[in-house]
Batch of 3 targets.
Target 1
Amino acid sequence: MARAEKVTAVAELTERFQSSSGAVLTEYRGLTVAQLGELRETLGANATFSVVKNTLTKIAATEAGVTSELTNLLTGPSAIAFVQGDVVEAAKGLRDFSRTNPLLVIKGGVLDGKPLSPDEIVKLADLESREVLLAKLAGAMKVSLSGAAATFAALPSQMARLLGALEAKRTAADDGGAGDLAAVGPESDEPGPDQPRSDEPGPDAAAVADSVPEAAADSSES
């Protein structure tokens, strides 16, 4: 490979490391071209699977700042799955393919700049995919919203019952006050102990008239 081609290859690999959310290093010794094609179809849009040269990949990984744990595994026939989509889906595809095609060996990987061992990649494949998690989240949100809607719908009837209870309590309080006033009664017209009753007769008018002349006579004699 000419120098210019090597520079271009390193630049492309560096860009892939930097733009990918993860990368899985494999050894494909003994796999046919048809099998590699099948693996690429299995990965679909989640990842691109490329056969790489170890020396150039080490340079590209170093320039991209990829951990040395991955570069140390660059021995033998190497191919890398650069993951652009769901990392879990890509890990599932590689795991399932390796089970039916044992010649594909998962050697390690990197996810968000952190190294992954083969066992960790398999565990990653056992997780639920992004689509499944989103579906579960949407379902949980739907249930929560339904509960909130039911709560809001119940508020008017609850408020009506509360207002009715308050009105009944206020009416009862008003009736109780009127009863107390009725017990006291209106202001009494009964005279006090020192006041004469209006229906009792006053002094005898004739007696008063008879006493006047006598009083006048006594006055003239004096």
Note: The helical segments are 3-19, 33-43, 54-64, 68-71, 87-100, 118-126, 130-184, 205-221.
Target 2
Amino acid sequence: MTLPDFIEMKQKIVLQASIILCTLFVYQITFAQCSPAGSGTNGGIFCMYPDTVRDCLYVGGDFHNTGNDTMNHCTYWDDATYMPMDMMGQNGCNDSVWCFTYFQGSLYVGGSFTLAGGIPCNRIARWDGTTWHPVGNGFNESVHSLCVYNNELYAGGEFLTSGTTPIAHIGKWDGSEWHQVGNGTNNDVESMCVWNGSLCMGGEFTQAGGMTVNRICSWNGSQFSAMGSGFTNGMMGRCSVQSLCIYNGNLFAGGSFEHAGSAELHNLGMWNGSTWSSIGEIEGEGESGVSAMCVYNEHLYVGGNFGSCGSSNANNLGAWNGSSWSSIGSGMNGKVTSLATYNGDLYIAGAFTNAAGTAVNNIAKYSTTTGIQSLQNTVHSVSLYPNPANDFVQVNWVSEKLSPVRLVVTDLNGMILEQQSYNVMVPGLQKDNVAIHQLPGGIYFLTIRAGNDTYTTKFLIQ
């Protein structure tokens, strides 16, 4: 080998090594980009649902407020205008919200509540964007899952009746009342999704329609079918399927279980239409398992209460690319119970205060294309009164930094009706009055824009 050839070969080796190192570095950083979603909530989040019609992300759970605002168990996040979590109706719900789905132009909400917006709604309610409505007689116990199949609304949960009608854990809505599906199941239905023309459902049940199915089955509109041998031997004595998701054409089931027939499947299994198989064990201590799944950026994201995915250490959140597992930075320091995609980002929710090194309150936003960006507003402690108002509203807030400020009043359609601008405001407590005497009665939004930060609150003109 000549000296020039040796030098050229050495340069190629160095270049290839550099590319490999850079690739590994980018991959590691990419999977550690989390940021808070607003001020988060003061209690656990159980479910999220993106609404592409109203361009918002619905959030439900066991919380009573989000940041500075009182929110009862359900709220929504508008990332397009960086609004804080906002109230759904006057009073929200009086107990936990467990699930959402969209059906015939309205959002349907299931949970443990008996009141929604002050209106009697037994464990299920309809939200039309402005007002809450009951859905028939509702149910006698909690609704844990909702799904639309063949243009019909299905509800699953702990319930056994709707009014005086027996409905064993799975019901179908005909527009005026609830009906039992087949002969129902013998225990809780916790998750549902549509796959290959059938409604698949998972939960704690071992029978559906009188046949043995072991925690998972399908419904074709007229009868139940088993999906292999189902699942057995859960952690801490509990065996259940808590989450279902479709990825690369296959159905994935997550929960708390150890076997599918004779095959070992620790908390996560893949169904190809005929057999269950493992893509790696999901392991942890105590009552570990998979509570949530979602497809984002061509990866299957899996959340729950665990410490590893396959051979990869992953604290409560892992990503599968079809062949291998990856962690998301240092993961979450508490259980992940819901995953959803909204506006090109992955939202992660549950009961945690740290997301890949970022302080959060039970909900975080994750992106594979941008760095860590805090959505925590430097505008906080906002109060507005009187509300309802007539001639003016006084708005008080605290600003953490020197910045220009603009106060903007908009209607429900986002049209700007009034605004006041200031070149610079020093940090600290701020007070201002905004004239509204020229506006007709109705609901309006007042937005404080301080530098790049935005805070929006709602008020009523009588």
Note: The first strand starts at residue 34 and ends at 36.
Target 3
Amino acid sequence: MKITVEISDELLIEAKKYAAGHRTTLRALLETGLRHELDGVAAQRSRIGWVTVAGGLPKEMDLADRTKMLQRFNK
């Protein structure tokens, strides 16, 4: 798919030099950068913070219900 992206001239020049120096295309460089950023976002979203308490899980905690768990930790 073709898109138009507006970036500074300096950044474009630097990106083209980087791509040429690494024997790749600007397209491949942009796709790699986007994938890297998006993978980081997905990894952050899927993290669950485990909390331990004396006596086991809180009564309202249901390990089988991911939605309730995420609601509890994203307050």
Note: Residues 9-73 form one domain.
